[in-house]
Amino acid sequence: MAAALAVSSYTSVLPQVVQHHPAAAAAAAAAAAAQISAVSSAGHNVHLSPLNMASHSGMQAILPSAPPSFGFTQEQVACVCEVLQQGGNIERLARFLWSLPACEHLHKNESVLKAKAVVAFHRGNFRELYKLLESHTFSQHNHPKLQQLWLKAHYIEAEKLRGRPLGAVGKYRVRRKFPLPR
Predict the structure, then answer these.
(1) Which residues form the Homeobox protein SIX1 N-terminal SD domain (predicted)?
(2) Are 27 and 87 in the same domain?
(3) 38, 51, 71, 88: which is deepest, by most CB within 10 A?
């Protein structure tokens, strides 16, 4: 099911490729989804290698805008991040983010930043989450999810500090003390 979701997501993100090479685009997306599935089932000894994925189904031949050293466009990376987030595969998402090259342009993509925030929250790395949310501007459609992460992280920290669950008044105090970033 994840592979089918990834295939449909890739084809919707890359309409220019689909128009000119629909079969090749579907095959490339299926190969990428299969590679991601293989990584998640193989465990921690195997890491997602975009260079290997680029060789599947002639992905390099149909994606001329893809950087030759990486094999994925920024849109494809964003699509994979969104698919893994929506599927709830946080560990797989973390491994995918770890495998990305150190490209500043890629790491400033909104989907990648949102994925990093989700991974930081699920790993309990709230400082990293706060830093990401405070230092970047996100589009309006991402605000509810990111605001929820911000508040939940502060609630969890306050509960740990107090040693008990927060009530309505406690949550209000946390919201007042830590307003949402602008």
Answers:
(1) 72-182
(2) yes
(3) 71
